[in-house]
Amino acid sequence: NAGVTQTPKFQVLKTGQSMTLQCAQDMNHEYMSWYRQDPGMGLRLIHYSVGAGITDQGEVPNGYNVSRSTTEDFPLRLLSAAPSQTSVYFCASSQGGTQYFGPGTRLTVT
Amino acid sequence: GQQLNQSPQSMFIQEGEDVSMNCTSSSIFNTWLWYKQEPGEGPVLLIALYKAGELTSNGRLTAQFGITRKDSFLNISASIPSDVGIYFCAGLFAGGTSYGKLTFGQGTILTVHP
Predict the structure, then answer these.
(1) Phi-psi region of B21 (alpha: psi -120 to 50; beta: other; left: phi over 0)
(2) How many whole angstroms from its chain centre is CA B87?
(3) Which of A60, A99, B101, B114 is the most buried (most CB within 10 A)?
(4) Which of A31, A41, A100 faces B100 most closely, judged by CB atoms?
């Protein structure tokens, strides 16, 4: 099992550009989520999904879109990148209460 | 929404010392999780707690789910240099519109001097 995988590992964008952060899991977990991590603020939930076709907003959803067409994949889209979106992004999946995290994507918006 | 207060924010200790950190909340959680994060990596689950009063060990790590369901602590005994990292508590509130959402503490940065 690869667990939770994320691509890319690093990305630099210019303000206004769009991009998609990829997340995949091979554990057949129903629940997947996206977090951003900023210094001194822990992890904050952006969007989550309780199953294919079902998504909902987390604590900080503005500027991000998600979709869940399959159980395995949960991409995060930045529609028009802003410097405030410079952060490290983590995807997680779970079955039951315990969440397992991917290695993260470090995004810089200039 | 639910808030978690984690303390201390950072700790500098000598190898061999014991470490204790805790999380408190104004809300009741059904699950408490403790994660460790090393530089450039995602958080890795250390211990999961599912019942109030539960005390669980994982090697040198011991964690407890507070009986009020609003707090948890993590202890590390006889610290070693590889314990260095950021430790996060996380609470899972399973109910209503918050189903399945993890709330994280701010993290405790642990430094261990050899």
Answers:
(1) beta
(2) 6
(3) A99
(4) A31
Burial of A86 (0-12, 13-18, 19+ CB in 10 A): middle
**Residue A15: its pLDDT value, please?**
98
Rounded mean pLDDT, B36-55: 92
Cβ within 8 Å, pair A97-B45: no
**What is the structure's pLDDT at A98?**
77
Q: Residue A59 and residue B1: Cβ atoms within 8 Å?
A: yes
Burial of A63 (0-12, 13-18, 19+ CB in 10 A): middle
Choose from A29, A36, A99 for mutation: most chain B CBs within 10 A: A99
For chain B, percent helix, then strand, then coil, each to nearest 5?
Answer: 5, 55, 40
Average pLDDT over residues B54-76: 96
> Mean pLDDT for each 10-residue chunk of chain A (110 residues)?
90 97 95 90 90 92 96 97 97 84 96
Nearest C-alpha in B relative to A47: B101
Q: Which of B92, B102, B108 has the highest number of chain A CBs within 10 A, making it the mutation to test binding with A?
A: B102
